[in-house]
Each structure stands twice: as structure tokens, then as C-alpha cells.
Amino acid sequence: MKQHVHTSVIGSYPISITTQDLMNDYFAEQQTSWTQYIEQAVHDMTAAGITYISDGQTRDPFIQLFTRKLNGCRIRQRTEIIGRVEHHTPITVPDQIYTKRLLPRHVMLIGVLTGPYTLTKSSVDSFYHDEKQLAFDFAAALRKEAELLLKHVDLISIDEPVFSNELPEYANELIQTITKGLSRPTRLHVCGDVSGIIPQLVDMPVDILSHEFKASPHLFNVFQEYPCNRNMCIGSVRSDDAVVESVEDIVTHVNKAIAIFDKNVVQIAPDCGQRLLPRTIAFQKLKNLAVAGEILNGG
After folding, report:
1. Is pTM beyond 0.70 here?
2. Model confidence over 110-150: pLDDT tens digits?
3. Fewer CB within 10 Å, N side or C side of the chain?
4. Beta bridge partners of 87
């Protein structure tokens, strides 16, 4: 039986945030405007026909989104580590609860976590002076957030872009700290050129691997050299280029992936988050992705 291919996003989506809205929220100590930003992102993703959507990560850049609410973190120009990193309050859960209310019945929700190693390498450490311990404390905090997300989302996705530049020897154990025993499927997204770390990636303790195959099509050739039993999310439209890929181009690209990974191709998505694209372009890319998904599924 042919594997069904779902369409998905990675995380961020471009929305229109005004400085005045941010100032009003800050001085009123409220967050009322954020619901309209989530609504913009969710509207576009669902109108495009995507089956796995996110909240658009509209509240904050993907590092500060987490470090702003973790004990031990202070945000100035960058996140500074000034104490023990610990989870003490839900971080993304309220936005997921709100997003869930907006979804049509057939649309599924992704709970996106910025990975512990990416958080570590994006922070200035003035407390631990031990990168590995800081990374594992971030992982323990993210595990608690993941457990809180389980009853609200359909998939937990960990975003570790730094892995493509530097993969620590303890990467597998770090990801397992978050994913072990979770009752929802898990996905690891690593953008960039991962050709040098594919042997490590195929052993990661997640259900789905996600990479930017559209900007880096040579990854197909490298993956062919290694046995991979993981399900795959295939980056099929670029997130760094405003040219909108045609439906035909996407179908041809995904068929190349299917020739390599066969039934393990379970999702197609943009290469990465779409935050830096114009909103109209991001939407059209998702719309073409969804039509391509229907064609691939025999629709």
C-alpha cells in the first residue's frame, strides 16, 4: 500500500507586527495582540491546504521564545545565562491551546521546540562555564515543556539548526533527553548542509528527520550511501528564495525523494521556517506544496 504523504510547515511564518502593537502590549503588561498574529499565520497555512501546521512562532524569535521564560536566563542583546536553567512555567503551551481552537478538524498541530544545543550556542554563558551541562539543562527544561504539549499537539518537532555547523558527540543523548517515551511522534529538523553528519542523523532517537533538500539537493546522493529507517520530511520549497516553485517542480523533487526513501517519505515541507519571506510568497509556496501533495497522493 502506498504511503500517504502529508504536507507540513517547519515553524515560523511571516506576519505583520507593528511597533505600536508591541509597545501597547509591553506597557499594558498584556498580550492581547498576539492572538491576531497567530490567527494570520493559521489562516494562511490552513487556507493553503497544509495538513500539519504550527502557530507561526509569532510571539518571539525562536531563541528568545524559550529563554524569555526559563529560569537562569536574562535577555539583553543576546540571551545571557546567569543561573541554573530550569523550566518553571509553560512556554508555548498557551499559544498551542489557542491555535488548536482555530483548526479545522482534519488539520494537525506541531509543537515546535528550539533545540537545546541551538539554545546553548546562541547564549552567553556567565554561570555554567560547561557547555555540555548547560545543553543538558536546556534539554531537561524542554522535556518538561514537551510533556505539557502532549495533550495539545499531534507532533513534537525539535529545531536544531546549529547541528549542521557543529554536532557534539553527545547529540544523540541530548535529543533523547527530550524524546524518550513521549506519546506523540517526534521530528528533528536540521537545516543547512548536513551531508557531513548523516551517519549520526540516521541514528537520532526521533520518528522523523527533516532537512532542506530543495536548497541542498546533493543531500539525496549522500543519504543514498547510508541505510536510513527513519521517516523523512522532505524540504521541497526554498525558504531563502522568493521564487515560487511550480507544482510540477515540487512533484518532480518529491518523486526523487521517494525513489530513495520509498515509503519513509511521510511529510513534505518548506526547507525551513518562512519568517524571512514576504507573506504573499510564503502563502503561494505553501499553496503549491499542498497541491503537489494531493497529486502525489493520487488526488
Report:
1. yes
2. 999 999 999 999 999 999 999 999 999 999 999 999 999 99
3. N
4. 70
Q: Which residue's entry shows cell 551517519?
A: 199
Per residue in 154-172, pLDDT tens?
999 999 999 999 999 999 9
User: CB-based burial of residue 39 (10 Å sphere; 0-12 exposed, 13-18 middle, 19+ buried)?
Assistant: middle
Sign of the C-alpha dihedral computed for residues 88, 92, 93 and 98 taken in this order = positive
Phi and psi for 107 in degrees, rounded to 5? -95, 135
Please name the residues in contact with 128: beta carbons below 8 A apart, sequence gap of 6 or more.
81, 134, 137
DSSP helix/strand/coil, 140: helix
Ramachandran region, residue 216 (left: φ > 0; alpha: ψ -120 to 50; beta: rest): beta
Q: Are 233 and 266 in contact (CB under 8 A)?
A: yes
Beta bridge partners of 232: 209, 265
Residue 102: all three cell numbers together: 482555530
Q: Taking the mean position of all CA atoms in its chain, how far away is CA 201? A: 16
Q: Which CATH class is domain 6-296?
A: alpha beta
Cell numbers at 39, concatenated? 490567527
